[in-house]
Amino acid sequence: MSDIHAFISDLGGIPATTDPRTIRTKSRDHYSLSPLLQKTLAGLQAELVVSPRTKDEVLTVAKVAHKHRISLTPRGAGTANYGQSVPLRGGAMLDLSGLSGIVSILDGAVRALAGTKIEDIEAAVQETGQELRFFPTTRRQATIGGFIAGGTGGVGSITWGVLRDRGNIIALEACSVEAEPQLVELRGKETRLLQHGYGTNGIITEVEFALAPARKWVEILVGFNDYPTAIRHALAIGYETGLVKKLASAYEWPIGQWLTPFAPFVPQGQSVVMAMIDASSMELYREMVSEAGGTILTEAPEAKGPYGRPMHEFAFGHTTLQVQKTVPTVTEVEGFFRSSDLKGQVLRVYERIRHTGPLRLEVRRWEGDLVCSGSTFITFEKEEEVDDVVRMMREEGIRVANPHASNVRGVGKKEIGPADIAFKKRMDPEGLLNPGRFEIDETKDAVIDKFLKTDGWLEAKTA
Questions:
Q1: Could you tell me whether strands 92-95 and 48-50 are parallel, antiparallel, or unpaired per DSSP bridges?
Q2: d(Cα 329, Cα 378) in Å, to the nearest integer?
């Protein structure tokens, strides 16, 4: 503890605390969605919380941490699903939520400090007639830096792709942890070095993100008598070039009933598609629903639906959060569907794994291709049941990421090559940033999940 006290002393007036309640609160995120992570991350926490409010204070924290060899685990709002912001080896929780504010809004771009809430950014750019291209389902709570460090895509990715796709992240600024910390700016494709790194290779301080023209979105819940038809319709939304869309999610019965706010509107036995469509495209969309044999169950302007919250808060990671309120024993994996015959691939996998639970799929774009992500909701009793779903999906050619792991390589959504290793050495030469989650030497990564035999969403990059 002497190092911790010396660390705090050298911080000067930068807020820091060893209050046990604050430490417990700040050392958690949404990893409780995974029954496996509930076991493997239980009891892990920081030794103190430090909360810089300016970039100069971030530089000071980095310098003092290097001096005393105190590890730093960067954290935004703690909305991550994989326990990325749970300290594996104690040290200081670096709470960046106070580093907030809009830096600039231009035509097509917004720049903000890392701790700025995404909801506040969206409100600010809406005043200029623009909107974020896409955002996480945790928009009301999440910070922009946390989204970049831990996210993949979100609501709007059906049109604009994911964070790693070129043009979405314009620039990132990050602080190194060394004797004399530096602020380093990455632009364009280089921003992938920091994206989805869980704060292991630089403390993100500013984000410049691409914007789109603001739209009047309409939320629609559509019912179908069978799930294959719902799948075909969700994919048709993605493929229809003349349709302006922001979301298409296909959920097999009884997921529509498990999502309690939707339950009054979903007839017995019906699978559902959640869609967000621009008001200008509604005539076309109603025609598509009719051609598919679907029934519009609810239709409302964005965030004004009869289910009491924005529709996007039932999609992606929020689906599991909402479903577990009704059926706390379920969990899932993260299959990545990508094929020149995407519809055939999805339907083939559905027939193979449907007996394990109801399937949920999110439609998005990835490097220009229309793709899907998702899996069945599995009633979790033992690890072997989860691994069986992974095995069957992989046997059908589906790449599977691991939401029950908590390090960069283990989850498997970040492309890691020589440039990433070199950048890690440059920004964190002593390995003080979120240690255990992405080490230069792969054998020194903390092993969070030893069971699931996943392969990740990205092909391994050769040197």
A1: parallel
A2: 8
Length of the chain in terms of residues written: 463
Listed in order, strand segments (DSSP E) in 237-317 are 245-251, 271-278, 295-301
Token pair belonging to 45: 């926490």
Read off the pLDDT of residues 203-261 as tens digits, 9 standing for 90 and up.
Answer: 999 999 999 999 999 999 999 999 999 999 999 999 999 999 999 999 999 999 999 99
* Residue 26, SS3 per DSSP: helix
Nearest alpha carbon to residue 157 among 271, 76, 301, 276? 276
The rounded distance, in Å, linking the Cα atoms of 16 and 87 is 16
User: What letter represents residue 94's amino acid?
Assistant: L
Euclidean distance between CA atoms 366 and 154, whole angstroms: 12
For residue 51, which of 102, 4, 92 has the smallest C-alpha distance? 92
> CB 449: neighbour CB atoms within 10 A?
21
- Shortest CA distance to 95 belongs to which of 31, 41, 153, 143? 143
Cα(37)–Cα(116) distance, integer angstroms: 28
Q: Which two tokens stand for residue 309?
A: 């919250």
Residue 73: phi, psi to the nearest 5? -110, 100
Cα–Cα dist 313/292, whole Å: 25
> Considering the chain, what is the average pLDDT of its residues?
94
Do the beta carbons of residue 417 and residue 463 sit within 8 Å?
A: yes
**236 closest CA partner among 322, 342, 165:** 342
Angle at CA of residue 423, ends 420 and 428, nearest 5°: 120
Placement of tokens 């609160």 in the chain = 25
DSSP code of 441?
A: S
Q: State how far the Cα of 13 lies from the Cα of 455, in Å rounded to an integer.
A: 46
Phi/psi of residue 385, nearest 5 degrees: -65, -40
Distance CA(262)–CA(221), nearest Å, equals 9
* Pairing mode of beta strands 359-366, 245-251: antiparallel
Look at residue 10 and tell me whether its pLDDT is greater than 60.
yes
pLDDT tens, residue by residue, 300-327: 999 999 999 999 999 998 999 999 999 9
Cα dihedral 323, 221, 284, 122 in deg (nearest 10): -60
Q: Does residue 202 contact residue 163 with C-beta atoms inside 8 Å?
A: no
φ and ψ of 179, to 5 deg:
-60, -40
DSSP 378-436: EE-SSHHHHHHHHHHHHHTT-EEE-TT--SHHHHT-S---HHHHHHHHHH-TT--BSTT
Other CB atoms closer than 10 Å to residue 374's CB: what's the count? 23
Distance CA 176, CA 424 (A): 9
